[in-house]
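TA notes, week 10

Several of you asked for a full example with nothing omitted. So below is the full record: structure tokens for the whole chain, then the designed sequence directly under it. When grading your own attempts, check the secondary structure regions first.
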């Protein structure tokens, strides 16, 4: 099915690095460690890994298989099999559009903090660090300019196409990201007093687990792997017919989990070594860590490396958020890639200006009690992504048919997929949709734990 002249990835590693780049983002290096800190450490980590295995890899295989079979991106893939389901694909496109609008703003923050770290933060007091963060994100001009720079880099890479843009730069950025995070983890593990942080991170205390923490772990798996927003499905549509889908769909979530795990090794020994509180929530990266780097020997170097790491993670994910929007305009509206990239990128940038200003001079304007930045985050993450992911799993299992999906995933049975029957008959049919439904119903307050 699909177009004969469709762009493809040039190699298996090209797909793996691009898909890993999509999955590895701020969710791994910023969100995952603060959730571990909030929900008790090692017990949360173990539950997270379990959910990666029983839902993350399962849904990843489903999206890649659907994309490759149809050779279409989000909307076209559903339309090719059952046209009445095309709106499900559109939900993912809208979610990716909304996420990139504010994600690019945060990408701009990482650029500011990279250069600020080089100069040196110069304070060990988290309250001073909080004042710096609050003052910067509420400024009417600087965050918008850095949002423009970040979005401009994202647009340029997607503008270049699949092989010359996405694959080429993912092949550079993902190895660089792993090198930086490993160096930072080694440095953090050698800090005097870091053992307490390591114990917090690696010795589970299951008494700390609650229903809320289980749902947070499941939600983090879902959002971290870029499921439900069209990125993985679209990347799968660029995969050649000879590729081993179960293999690449297992490697990418493992890489994603490894980066999240390494991020914890970077953060928790350092936080404990200097006597800071690990359960600081979203401020852990932008408020607590600058204070840590201020006390650490050569902290400006390691601080700059950390925020460069955040920048790389944000950029690889931003590319994968823009690509499904661009692919949709190419396939459904016959736009050329260059036109689609420039126009849709410009629209997303414009929405992002409003998201940035809502942290400052437009903070008085609210939707559902939230500023515009938080509104975009809440609607996309808590409503659109779970709904899209759940309906995609149902579509693959019950509309396309899990047997047909298994046939595609195994290249008509020529590839060994040892747990393929379990995947087709149990996990994608029942386990994944039910667990995602629980996350969604909990996130909107219908089910309480």
């Amino acid at each position: 099915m699909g177009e004969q002249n469709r762009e493809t990835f040039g190699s298996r590693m090209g797909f793996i690095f691009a898909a890993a780049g999509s999955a590895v983002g701020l969710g791994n290096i910023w969100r995952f460690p603060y959730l571990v800190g909030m929900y008790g450490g090692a017990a949360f980590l173990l539950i997270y890994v379990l959910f990666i295995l029983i839902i993350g890899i399962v849904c990843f295989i489903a999206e890649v298989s659907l994309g490759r079979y149809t050779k279409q991106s989000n909307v076209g893939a559903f339309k090719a099999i059952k046209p009445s389901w095309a709106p499900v694909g559109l939900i993912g496109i809208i979610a990716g559009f909304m996420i990139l609008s504010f994600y690019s703003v945060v990408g701009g923050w990482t650029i500011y903090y990279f250069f600020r770290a080089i100069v040196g933060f110069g304070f060990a007091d988290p309250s001073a660090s909080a004042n710096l963060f609050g003052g910067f994100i509420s400024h009417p001009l600087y965050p918008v300019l850095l949002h423009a720079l970040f979005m401009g880099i994202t647009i340029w890479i997607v503008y270049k196409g699949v092989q010359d843009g996405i694959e080429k730069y993912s092949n550079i950025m993902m190895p660089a990201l792993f090198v930086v995070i490993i160096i930072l983890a080694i440095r953090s593990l050698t800090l005097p007093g870091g053992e307490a942080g390591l114990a917090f991170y690696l010795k589970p205390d299951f008494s700390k687990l609650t229903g809320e923490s289980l749902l947070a772990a499941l939600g983090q798996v879902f959002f971290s792997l870029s499921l439900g927003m069209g990125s993985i499905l679209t990347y799968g549509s660029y995969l050649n017919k000879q590729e081993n889908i179960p293999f690449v769909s297992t490697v990418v979530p493992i890489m994603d989990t490894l980066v999240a795990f390494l991020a914890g090794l970077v953060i928790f020994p350092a936080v404990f070594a200097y006597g800071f509180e690990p359960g600081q929530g979203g401020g852990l990266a932008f408020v607590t860590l600058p204070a840590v780097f201020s006390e650490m020997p050569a902290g400006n170097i390691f601080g700059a490396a950390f925020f460069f790491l955040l920048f790389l993670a944000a950029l690889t994910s931003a590319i994968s958020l823009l690509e499904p929007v661009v692919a949709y305009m190419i396939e459904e509206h016959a736009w050329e890639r260059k036109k689609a990239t420039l126009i849709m990128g410009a629209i997303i940038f414009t929405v992002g200006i409003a998201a940035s200003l809502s942290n400052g001079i437009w903070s008085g304007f609210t939707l559902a009690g939230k500023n515009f930045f938080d509104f975009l985050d809440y609607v996309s993450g808590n409503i659109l992504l779970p709904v899209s992911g759940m309906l995609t799993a149902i579509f693959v299992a019950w509309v396309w048919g899990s047997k047909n999906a298994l046939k595609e995933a195994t290249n008509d049975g020529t590839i060994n997929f040892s747990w393929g029957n379990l995947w087709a008959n149990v996990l994608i049919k029942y386990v994944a949709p039910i667990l995602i439904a629980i996350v969604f119903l909990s996130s909107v307050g219908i089910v309480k734990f």
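The longest strand covers residues 366-367. Use that as a sanity check on your answer.
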